[in-house]
Amino acid sequence: MVALFRAFGVFYGPMPKPRPKITRTRPTKEVSVMAWIEDAKQNVLLVRQAVGLRLWTLPGGKVKRGESLVKALKRELYEETGLRAQIGSLLGVLDRRDKDAITLLFVAVPNKNSIKIKQNNKEIKSADFQASLPKKASPSVKYFWSARRGPVTEVRKIRASTHQFPPIV
What we know:
Strand content: 25-35%
Low-confidence stretches: 149-153, 158-169
Oligomer: single chain
Distance between the termini: 74 Å
Mean pLDDT: 79
Strand order of the largest sheet: 4-1-6-5
Helix content: 10-25%
CATH topology of the domain at 30-139: Nucleoside Triphosphate Pyrophosphohydrolase
């Protein structure tokens, strides 16, 4: 008789226990991108923060959800310096475990040489090419500055829609 009731989708016995819900936490890190831009004299473009500790750092910022790394860097570079640039190879990675963040450094070559800081920019006070590391530098720029190996003169073009990194030359 029980088999007959099961065949029609009716069962008059103890209900199976519901499975306990498993709470899964997705490990996440905040992702930021930075640009390494050198001028003809091998000076590096740095920006000075307008608020907080007012440190010198490399241009860049946080990647928005669903945004590609290249698109985020192009956006941040334009917002902070007014520069449009080609983004090239990945130069370095900084894992900030203390802040649960990761920063990716890319080489960039500006399409034009003039830097135009917007007058109403609340984040950036100034931008300039620096021959040496300023005293008031951010931890990320100190790390990348010490890790650099020399000037980058050639940019390998990558499409903004790609999620693969080009080979490091």
